[in-house]
Write a structure and sequence with these properties.
Blueprint (H helix, E strand, L loop, with lengths): L2 H18 L22 H8 L9 E6 L7 H10 L11 E3 L10 E3 L1 H4 L10 H6 E6 L10 H18 L6 E3 L15 H5 L6
Parallel strand pairs: 1-4, 1-5, 2-4
Antiparallel strand pairs: 2-3
Bound molecules: zinc ion.
């Protein structure tokens, strides 16, 4: 018997042992919601980033998706300045990346938060004026927010609620007051509100 054949027989034998012993598991799709990559431990980090900004009165937190596969604050800022003609640029106060265009779960602070000025995200004056706009990169009609995005959003929402005294019933999705699918039908709104969720 050739050496090659011997190796082949040996490998087949090994493979069947592994298979029969149950070690072999076929690759399965793992739902994102069960992955605990970022427990809520980032909350202090968010605080240390945001504590030194003065805050004015805010009544709502409005959640959006970008309805795009990728993106980041700089990209949306450019789009809002050049295509929409908004001199204050980025319409959201915060952008949370999904790993395409910016780091997964990275919170970017927009100029409108730093300067505490009205957002341009709601399409309704009251919510632009009193609503903190947070945009998660992604299209959640077609995919799901990542675990890291949801952990960051959850920590950010918790921080803003406490800092700005916003009750949970005022943490809303764009589609609550506007005819839009935003932030997409797969956005786990009730899980976010449950607070106890781990992502
Ligand atoms: Zn929206």
């Amino acid at each position: 018997m050739h050496c090659k054949e011997k190796i082949y027989i040996y490998l087949s034998f090994l493979a069947s042992i592994i298979f029969l012993s149950g070690c072999y598991a076929p690759p399965t799709f793992k739902p994102i919601t069960t992955t605990v990559k970022h427990p809520k431990k980032e909350a202090p980090y968010i605080g240390s980033q945001l504590d030194h900004y003065f805050v004015r009165d805010w009544k709502y937190i409005v959640i959006h998706h970008s309805a795009s596969v990728s993106g980041c604050a700089a990209e949306f800022d450019r789009f809002h300045r050049e295509k929409r003609g908004w001199e204050n640029g980025l319409g959201y106060h915060f952008v949370i990346g999904n790993g395409c265009g910016s780091d997964d779960g990275k919170i970017e602070i927009g100029g409108r938060w730093i300067n505490q000025i009205d957002g341009a995200h709601a399409g309704v004056q009251e919510y632009n004026h009193s609503g903190i706009g947070i945009c998660l990169v992604g299209n959640f009609n077609e995919s799901y927010p990542t675990a890291a995005q949801m952990a960051s959003l959850s920590a950010l929402v918790e921080y803003l609620q406490e800092r700005c005294r916003i009750p949970s019933e005022n943490v809303i999705m764009h589609r609550h007051f506007r005819e839009t699918e935003c932030p997409g039908r797969n956005f786990p709104y009730y899980k976010l509100l449950a607070k106890t969720a781990r992502w």
